[in-house]
Amino acid sequence: MWSDTFNKVEQGLAQGPLCWVEVMDSRGSVPRERGAWMAVFADRVAGTIGGGHLEFDAIDRARSLLRGWATPGEQGSQGGQVATEHQHRYPLGPSLGQCCGGVVMLRFVLVPQGRMDMLRERLQPPRDCVALFGAGHVGHALVRLLCNLPYRVMWVDSRDSVFPEEEHELVQCEYSDPVQSAVADLPAGSQVLIMSFSHAEDLEVVAQCLGRQRQHGDLPYVGLIGSATKWATFRRRLRERGFSDAELDHVTCPIGVPGIKGKEPEVIAVAVAAQLLQRRSAVSARNQGNL
C-alpha cells in the first residue's frame, strides 16, 4: 500500500540514513520494471525490486554502502553527510542464482537522516484515477483492493452514510445527489466504474459519461456492472436519447476479466481490478512502442 510504504520510509528516515535502490534500466526478462524501488535501512527494508537473489544482493550492497558512508571523504563542508550515488549492473544468470536471462541496472542513492525532501518527488502517489460510482458491497471490496494497487480512487455515492468512517489517503469520498452530477468534475483520464444501488442511477451516470466523452473524449474507460440483459436494456434507452452505436460501444458491460466465476463481492472485485490492470499494461506497452 502506497501510503503505508511512504510512512515507513518517512519514519525510518527520521531515525537514520537510508540507501534508495531503484531499477534505472533493464533488458530482457526481469523481476520488476524500470522505476521499481526499495528503501534500505540498517535494520529494515521498505518496498521491493522483485525479491530473490537480486534483491538480497542489492540489500547487502546498500547496507555495505551505508556502513562505509561516514568516512572523511563522504563528509559535507559542515561535517554533515552528503548523498552519494552508485550504479551496479546485474546479469540475471547462474552467478546470481536467477535464470530470468535479463539484465538489471540498479541505482543506489545514499540519503542523509531527515532529508525526506530528497525523496518526495520519487514518492509521488499514483496518478491513474479510478472514478467509482457506488459504495455497496462490491464497491467496498473493490476499494480495499485498489488501495494496494497503483491507483487513486474518487468514490461517489448519493448516500453520504455509506462511506467508511476512516478515509484512506488515496481515496476521495464524494457525496453527490444527483449522483451523475459528479461526472463533470472527474479528472481527465479517469477510468469510470459504475455500480450504484439503483439501475436508474446507473443509467444516468452512463449517460453523463457518454455525453462527456462526446464533448471531450477524456474518459478512456467506462465500465458498468451487470448482465448482458441489463446492458441490452440500457443500450435501447440510450439510443432513444440520441447516442450512436459507436458511442455505446465505448461502454464495457459486463465488467471484469472473463472466466472468473462467482458473484461474491470479493470475487467480482478481483475480476474488475484485473481488467483495470490489463488495460494499464496495454496502455503502457503502446506508449513504449511510440517512444
Automatic annotation (TrEMBL):
Gene3D superfamilies linked to this entry: NAD(P)-binding Rossmann-like Domain
Highest taxon above the source species: Bacteria
Domain XdhC- CoxI: 17-67
Organism: Delftia lacustris
Domain XdhC Rossmann: 131-276
Protein's recorded name: Xanthine dehydrogenase accessory protein XdhC
